[in-house]
Fold each of these.
Amino acid sequence: MATTSSTTSTSATAQIVSTLGAGSGINLSQLAEQLAAAQFAARKDALTAKSEKLTTQISSASNLKSLMSTLSSSIGSLIRTGDLAVNPSISSSSVATVSKGTGTGSGTYELEVSSLATAQKLVGQAYDSSSSTVGSGTLTLRFGTVSGSTFTEDESQDAVDIAIESGATLADVAIAINASGAGVSAYVANGSSGAQLVIKGATGQTSGFIIEATETDGDAGLADLAWTPSTDSGELKSTAADAAFTLDGVAYTSDSNTLTDIVTGLTIKLTGTNSGSPATIGFDDPSDSISSAMSDLVEALNEVVSELTDAMDMTSGTLGNDSGARALRSALTSLAGQEIMPDAADGEPSTLADLGLKIERDGTFSLDSSRLKATLESYPEAAGAMWTTGLYGVFATIDSISRTASSTTGYGSLGGSVTRYTAMKATVDKQATTLDEKQEDMRQRLVTRFAVMDTNVSASQSTLSFLKAQIAAWNSSDN
């Protein structure tokens, strides 16, 4: 809060101040300021102390909130690197790439790929350019299996009719095919032979297709885009086929090269063949990374506990009776025993205590290395599953505590405390400003009153001096 200046806002008062004390010999300007300051000193000191306390409370609550937010973000970043999860790997990346599926995998598998899933591809006859007209009518796509010169329609897939308007160009046909939603794509390739329509379907044996053309009378040409295997004259560049592979000796086929959760926790994308030379798929053991992560977690939690303990000290703390601080302490106190994996199977780890987190009597945390080791040896996959960014687990639990602490609504959160203290400080600062204004008003009124008094004193002194001179003159004449 600002110190009141002795300089007034009006020139008239300024002139009075400059002459105050001339008659009485007393510095009445300074006296006016001192008296006004003394009148409001106690109330201003109280407001200053209250404002400083609120500032400290805001800082302390904000710091605790920030510590929890940083801890949550750090765990999320650590999990996203994948070091704490049970991730699959393959001995030959030229055969397939592997990634974690929706579950948690374990064990080893032998993969042997004899063929990849392929898509049918047609390259039509050459035109002069992509703007060459092709006639009009309807193109019909029928889906099924192409084998040699035969086509077997798959009745489960609907035929797709594509209308080609009069005056349509080769480029217009490609656009119409792409817009049809038939599951095939088309474009015009401008190669050395000219402009050619390239049409590609989906992978899988039953994703082959034929093209029928129904021309508009008097606007021929669309039949040149029709195709069947029996009339093929080189347009067919690849045939739709399923992938064929074995996993641990069990034969499979797939209409896609991406195999999702073919075994628990494993997604495979086939990229090549390796008949006679199986590749090995396995899952890594994240035990060392989890042990390191738990040590870091204990250290970070103790940093929060230390800050929280100091802040809640009833003698010297700034948040001794703060509801948000109490709520955070309660959440941390119950953290070790809280069930964070409600879907865990019997015997599998479901709490942070199972990962070795232990709370001491003084509220600090420690790591029970023996319990952590036992869990990792017995349930490495389940322990790894606790370190995910899903609905449950270590991150979800810490993040929930952090979000609750950061909430600006409700009474029992640090964010709510910051909001409340900030509003209180704004009120105190406004009250301090009002006192400053009242003090200045009093000072100016005192200056005005003292000016009148000083004038009267000056007049009295002049009268006294005159009387003294007269008396002295009388006395002199008597002599």
Note: Residues 248 and 286 are 24 Å apart (CA to CA).
Amino acid sequence: MERLKGMFYLVCAFSLAGTSVIAARFIDDHVGTFTITAVSLFLALLCLVPLGGRRLVQTVLRLSLQDWMLLLTQSLFGVFLFRMFLLYGLAHTSAGEAGILTGATPAVTLILALLLLKESINRTALLGILSTIGGILLLQGILIPERVVTFSTNHFIGNILVICAAVSESLFNIFSRNAAIKTHLSHREPLHPITQTTLVSAMALVLCLIPSLFEHPLSALSVIGWKDWLALVWYGPFVTALAFIFWYAGIKRCQVSTAAALSGMMPFSSLLLSVIVLGEQTGWQQWSGGILVILGMILIGGNQHSNMKKKKLPSLST
């Protein structure tokens, strides 16, 4: 049951994360990159701090220097660098293409998990990862000869920046899982997902404040319309607060290889919203790629049960 609950949380987290590409498209042309991130984090903290309450204060008082460093790395790679690369990338490439390119996360996360965390995967898990990666390649059009033109020189810089965002997200996955393992091995009480999300968001906000000042945030925010503010609100309490709460609740129950496969929900949800919200056209290759992504998640999910028996983290209430 804990295994399925963890997978459910991760699916919710990555589905919400996939909407960030669409939300950013509505505001990227009007407000600076660091201003977008800072405002969204501030709005998220307005919701998170009251939810954290007394538990948040107690946690801050008992954290060690190592704990703070782990949280700092998570905020640096999972929020600050990820959003910086993604938002700058969106200035050079389309929303749909950027959303799909975030699908590089599963492959990068799996490689890092094998190298850094020494996690092992069997053939079923590997097949699930390959199915996810294949679906992402099909979604992007790499496997369709006539669509290779999508990787033109004009979009090259944007594509590279979005891939850097995917690498940052993968490193965040690794650091989050590593923090959970260290907490378990030291027999300490794990951080509550809401508390952990609040601290990571606050640290990321501090990182964004100085660079945002060079973007003249007050004048930029004073001229944007209600759609821009609606996008910022979605980017904050939902894409940031709720998605990260789901993430921390899920990664404590699942291996990184599982999170890698489920991260395929990011490009899949981006694809759906590109069609529904932005009106982009899709064909059989996009939907076939989506089916492969779902198949990969099923294969990894079925394999997770045996892995958790060998290496299991304590159950956590959220």
Note: The first helix runs from residue 2 to 27.
